[in-house]
Amino acid sequence: MQTVLEYASIFQNYLEEHTLDKEPKNLYKPINYILKLGGKRLRPVLTMLAAEMFNTSYQKAMPAALAIEMFHNFSLVHDDIMDDAPLRRGEQTVHEKWDVNTGILSGDAMLILAYQLFEQYDGTIFRELAKLFSKTAMEVCEGQQYDVDFETRDDVTLDQYLKMIEYKTAVLVGAALKMGAIIAGASHSCQEAIYTFGRDLGLAFQLQDDYLDAFGDPETFGKQVGGDIIENKKTFLYLTALDNSDPDEAQQLRHLYSVSPIDPSEKIETVKQQFLDSGAAKATQDEIKRHTQHAFEALESLKIDDSKKEVLRDFGTALMRRTV
Question: How far apart are the C-alpha atoms of 300 and 2, rounded to whole Å?
Fold first, then answer.
């Protein structure tokens, strides 16, 4: 088996070999552009790694790994349009560099290209991959809609928020791992266990992202600390603080999430202090640990060598210790 960094390098080379030099240029250039903007390549690496976990060469998993990365970036192109976001990974978003219509159409093409990549697999493997991919793609869309709905709702619960981030973020991590297991012909129980590992790790990852947004180090976080507070996003931190605060404190927090001051620094600091005083910050860290532990429990149930489990365990531990 390779290291995570080695898998990422191999995938990057594969991606560059599959640059879409086709007509019409204005359909394919935006696709090449978003795919080359970088990112962690987390999902395709997990597909490659999972195949080798179950004694199949990562090379057999490459088309599925590219499909996962294609789908992930498709969702980013459309999310950026919905959010009217000017930047993605420090560069212009597709709809800003070209236009909204190009972003929509190129995004649609990426979704179709992802499905086409599965055609490189035969029979049962193709059917299982396509079935998992369709289920996951629909859940991601549902998660995105929940996220949009939550912006105008004042009655969002913690369970609803967890379902939203599970669908919007975590299921794709689980699917990336399960695809590698399907390609390798792993047992159904192993497929489900590695999916559970990925899904719970994805939940922990998103909760960690929420936490770092408020309490991360500005020098290492990579984006503005307090961004979710500025945008009045109803995160696990915010919802827990509401539940744990007395009526007056809860009302103050709701008020702060209804205003958008020109200088948000005082708002950020006040909200962060309420996150600390209410116990929401600690509760979020506890929830991160809970999902990480669930992931590791699923990992232990896999019938593979301990040395292979250690690769995924180290990967999960590193992910939860990140500062960016």
Answer: 21
